[in-house]
Amino acid sequence: MLFVDRIGRKPLALIGSAGMAVSLGLAAWAFSFKQEIGGDISLPDTQGTVGLIAAHSFVLFFALSWGVVVWVMLGEIFPNRIRAALLGVAASAQWITNWLITASFPTMSDWNLSGSYVIYACFAALSIPFILKWVPETKGKALEDMG
């Protein structure tokens, strides 16, 4: 939250997207070396370390950016006259998407854990051009000036 007004919403979202994409890509690489022994998954030492760092890096980049920025921006980007309705729709979409990811991950990881992380990394990477093209910067703008 400290960085939202200092750095700006759009730059934080871009930093977060890039960091999450790299972290997820590294996790995909690490888990491509997984071995199953008696139903337990293990990784070689190097890949295990990379996987652990990637998981923590993902959480860090998400918490510094998308975890906060989306909710700040949702309250700022819509015009006053329709803000409440559009905020409700956008928040609902956010929660439905969160649920879809949570519900689909076990099945996807059973199919291919590394492949699952590749798919998530691709979506994180795709958020970069989306942000650049369609997300407005709201730093320093009055709510009345939105829309």
Summarize the structure.
The chain is mainly alpha-helical.
Oligomerization status of the protein chains: single chain
Q: Give the DSSP E fraction (strand runs of 2 or more residues).
A: under 5%
Secondary structure tally: strands:
2
Distance between the termini: 24 Å
Give the CA-based shape. Answer: elongated
Q: Helicity, in percent?
A: over 70%
Going across the major beta sheet, what is the strand order? 1-2
Q: Can you describe this structure?
A:
The chain is mainly alpha-helical and 147 residues long. Helix content is 75%, strand content 4%. It has 5 helices and 2 strands, in the order H-H-E-E-H-H-H. It has a two-stranded antiparallel ribbon. A hairpin with a 2-residue loop joins strand 1 and strand 2. Helix 2 (9-31) runs antiparallel to helix 3 (45-64), helix 2 (9-31) packs antiparallel against helix 4 (66-74) and helix 3 packs parallel to helix 4 (66-74). It is elongated, with a radius of gyration of 18 Å. It starts with a helix and ends in a 13-residue tail after the last helix. The mean pLDDT is 93.
